[in-house]
Amino acid sequence: MANSYNIAVVGATGAVGAVMLKLLKEHEFPVASVRALASGGSAGRTVTFADTDIEVEELTANSFDGVQIALFSAGGARSKEFAPAAVAAGAVVIDNSSAFRMETNVPLVVPEVNPEDVKWHEGIIANPNCSTIQMMVALKPIYDAVGIERIVVTTFQSVSGTGNKAIGELFNQSEAVLQSGDVEINVYPHRIAFNVIPHIENFHDNGYTNEEVKMINETRKILGDPGIGVTATCVRVPVYNAHSEAVNIQTTRPVSVDEVRRLMLSAPGVTLIDDPSANEYPMPVIAEGRDDVFVGRIRADESAENALNLWVVSDNLRKGAATNAIQIAELLVDWGLLD
Ligand SMILES: NC(=O)c1ccc[n+]([C@@H]2O[C@H](COP(=O)([O-])OP(=O)(O)OC[C@H]3O[C@@H](n4cnc5c(N)ncnc54)[C@H](OP(=O)(O)O)[C@@H]3O)[C@@H](O)[C@H]2O)c1
User: Fold this and answer.
1) For position 1, what pLDDT does the model report?
2) Hey, whose CA ends up nearest to atom 33 of ligand 1?
3) What is the model's pTM?
4) Contact indicator for 314, 293 with CB cutoff of 8 Å
């Protein structure tokens, strides 16, 4: 990697943006300059990149002069409004929002799963939904080895998946409950402290939530398999960071639990933690702050033929968002797609 690049981080003051800045340094990405962009309300504040304070600028259509990579994580409305300006200025946009994910001319990329798709981008590359990314990393080796007919997934999603306000809400509500005070509800439709909410984003007419629909549609696009069966139940839980998933799969050909364990041991981006006799299995407290997807509790589903259960945990701010975006940027650099 001979060159270095001018990067814009859009949403630099947010939960994902902060991790994005941290990871650019941690991954030793070849950075020439970083522009930190957020709303007008944050202009003049500072964020930290590589032990240096950077002044936050207001995001405008003119923010992208000289920028080669624009990492967007400021919500879908900002992506829709400003990503075209970034592309027009010559940048490649890697977008964390759902604004462009299902557009036919936008690759939806998990580097361990479908890296080649970055090659046909037309300026925008979409990062999938956080819950979908970690499920794809865990399932792709099984999909390649024996085929997968159907996936039934239940998620246990942390509050950091909703951003900084939700992190604050879990903290404040937990304190209020423990002190028997009044609980203020601002972010979710119900209290999240000491509760679980089977509702993430708006409901569709068929009774599924938008998060569930994203997992179904994005899985099919990433695998290039419109016929794969996917059904999801997405649940918000009072965990600060890292999403967990109970995943049941039906494979096309038989596969043993031992063979799946072997596949996980050699899978890129996967760490296997699967020793029930020693109480060892993935948990949010293990995944937090790490880039990998953690897999465990692998066992046969004895109620159906060729069926298996897995437990999949990952840091949603990292692999579910910032890590995946930076890996895409690394692919662009490694494959000379920025020059
Ligand atoms: N959290 C996750 O695990 C996760 C995972 C995958 C994808 N994403 C996606 O990433 C995006 C950000 O999520 P987050 O969790 O980081 O949320 P967040 O903590 O609420 O941060 C939102 C960011 O967007 C900026 N923003 C809001 N309104 C803006 C405006 N009008 N102009 C410019 N910037 C504006 C905010 O700037 P101010 O501070 O100035 O308001 C802040 O930097 C969302 O699209 C989300 O769907 C999140």
Assistant:
1) 44
2) 39
3) 0.97
4) yes
